[in-house]
Amino acid sequence: MTNQTPNFYALLIGINFYFPHRLPEGNSYKNLRGCVQDINHVETYLKETFNLTPDQIIKLTATASDNPNQPQEPPELLPTYENIVAKFKELTAQAQPQDRVYIHYSGHGGRAKTIFESLKGSMGLDEALVPCDIGQPNSRYLRDLEFAKLLEEMVAKELVVTLVLDSCHSGGATREMSGDDRIRGEGFIDMTLRPTDSLVAPLQELAQNWQTSTENSRNITVVNGLLPEPKGYTLIAACRDQEFAYEKVFEGTERNGALTYYLLKALRQYGTEIAVEHLFNQISNLVHNDFDRQTPMLIGETNRTFLGGQSVVASRNAPVMKVDITKNRVQLQMGEASGIKKGAEFDIFRFGTRAFEDSENRIATVKVVELGASECWAEVTMLHNEFRTRELHHKLTEGIIEIGSPAVYVGPPLEQIRKVRVLLPDPLPQIPGVDVSSLPGILETQKEEVENHSWIEFCPETEKDENVNYFVSVNSQGEYVILDANKAPIKNVLFPIKVDAPEAAKKLINRLIHITIYQNRLELDNEDAFSRLNGKLKVELVKSVKRQRVVLNVDGKVPVLEKGAEDITLVIHNESTRSLNITALIFDMDFRILQIYPKGVNNEVVEPKGETTEPLKLSLPKNYEEGVNVIKVFATLDATNYHLWELPALDQDLQGRMAEVVTKASNEWTTEKVEYVLR
Questions:
Q1: How far is CA 138 from the centre of its chain?
Q2: Which is it for strands 233-237 and 362-371: parallel, antiparallel or unpaired?
Q3: Percent of the chain beyond pLDDT 90?
Q4: Measured between alpha carbons, how far is 408 from 387 in angstroms, rounded to an integer?
């Protein structure tokens, strides 16, 4: 029976001390200096916040002592492989459905020769957490398949799991480590022959669990392969693949992990009921501002409060990354690659705001003045509410805007606004109860009351046809009709709006806004002829025929595909010399925009000259028999968030569109698209 009042449990693992060892080729895992301190501070916070008893906190630590061969803790409290697995299982057995479980790991991540050759092949590698006794001949890593199984058992028991990994898990990045003792990771691959059994489960069961976890997600893994796409739990990782997890002295003389330090600082200020997405927006930017080679990741169940487990609605906003008081501006996590132009306006709300219709939480209005590929600088043009009473002439001072505060997209610059003209037929149709001749004025008045109305502008009859993007007319059945610039009906708009229907004008205006946003995003392209990424992104639709790849969109051909009849794979090639963050969106025939790759994370890194693949499940929207879909693939040097671009199908309720040495922005992003007809 489910507890009426969920309990809270924690498993805390911190490793400063690694037993002296020497692995093949002279490699070793060096001692760290801030991991145990991280865990001690997390323990103190949890005890103070949740009044936890000793049996609700399991702690395994390895602390250096005066003896370089021996840690301070007794063997039963050390984070060895055996102890870590045992404590995971103990906690899972003890907790009941809906109980909250918090896991925090601070230590090394590593890579080793796989013990799952049937799944990964003889040359495969296992990503792993590194126990403190890894140097002993018969010691074992906590490997990716084992870690995934331990978490899956918690999720299967309906525990509410939150996981924080303050460690490096990237072999690629740490090859450039150069002895920096602030970094929690090593760059080598451990080829030591180790025991091939597991205390978690039989190897066959572990492999089956891994395959089941990845079968619908193109084997997508996160934290450089350590885990499958998280399902049922929330994960905050210290850094992206190919990056570093840093520690430093923040206060006094004690070292702490950057992620743990800012996480605890935010939790003490805002409490555990803060939405995990809002919390992450603040701490990730604070960490990245300190260390430009560390970008934390939020993955899995993100529509929750942190530690509390209550569901919250995703806000789809772009956070404030930096605040520059001297120049009266803020940096937002949205840039040229997301379609932002100079002159675009945003409203900044108080940190933690969830309901953006509440103007009392609005702090400032800003206008974009400088563009990067994945970010922009926006100047404060107005302060709101109590801030406007200060005699500052709308100038920022310390503390007005916090890092992580949400920025809501207010309106596009002039070049993104679509002009609409009402083109009434002659003679006017007779519609009982409706003065058709008054419709232009009614629509223009109604527009000002509709959310996101600044995307469209009604223009007078005198406006030249070549300046008009859409025409609105009324047919003989008394229905609104939307025409394109050539006065042809917009394709795939299936459901008519009767002029005399309730709220007909509002529905029409929302339809025009939706189509405008869709078209603006579809048409976004990097048109800089000198961009260094031009031609470096290649996108293919591929069919497998007798073990051979057959490219269907060769030479720009638009393939005609049958729903459910063909097995099609999207193949994305990075032909540049830089690692690229890849995101793929589908622009559906029903005017929906949806991120289809990758799943569970904002983007996936594809290495230079590398490729990634995603099987496509082709389906037609309800009531559609045929139409053209577009898959648009974006590549950026820095991470960005295209979930902010997503739109529901046409005529569903629209949510507010929200955002986030000088380098030329066009050199840092590119995009390619592929079209196909589906029937």
A1: 39
A2: unpaired
A3: 54
A4: 18
